[in-house]
Amino acid sequence: MTQNIKKIQVMNGPNLNMLGKREPAIYGSLTLDQINTDLARQAVPLGMALGFFQSNHEGAMVDKIHDMFEEEIAGIIINPGALTHTSVALRDALLLMSCPIIEIHLSNIYKREAFRHTSLLADIVAGQITGFGHYGYTMAVMAMAVMINDD
Predict the structure, then answer these.
(1) What integer pLDDT is reported at residue 3 of this predicted model?
(2) What is the pTM of this model?
(3) Average pLDDT, the chain
(4) Do residues 8 and 97 make contact, with C-beta atoms less than 8 angstroms apart?
(5) pLDDT band at 151 (very low <50, low <70, confident <90, very high)
(6) Which one of 85, 105, 117, 135 is the catalytic residue?
(7) 27 an active-site residue?
(8) How far is Cα 112 from Cα 6, in angstroms, rounded to an integer?
(9) Helix (H) or strand (E) holding 134
(10) In 13-143, which ranges are E strands?
């Protein structure tokens, strides 16, 4: 019996390429590559193939979403970084997508500076995971598996 593998895009925004170096007390000591490698391994038994994309540029993130609009993407897991609080363009691009979207943050954005308490994406995503460090990505993969297979 062959399994229908579903493609999930994991997107990471500005400064997340510096994980493991940038404020490890807040963001942890694992690099983004280490997190991605672990996620790819976890996704296989769940019937998912993960694609990974990171950019420090808002326009590149928007362009990637436009590209995904033309593909068969079953879901998106996105850590938009600082774009969470500022990017109407990212929000508008995500509104193109009809698949489930999970917003993730390594730190608890609601326990940080007041400007981080507002997510421009919160009302358009299926759910938000915040404050669990790198384990939040695992939680997002598990939640995505439930959402896309709950037919």
Answers:
(1) 66
(2) 0.93
(3) 93
(4) no
(5) low
(6) 105
(7) yes
(8) 35
(9) none
(10) 48-54, 75-79, 101-105, 127-130
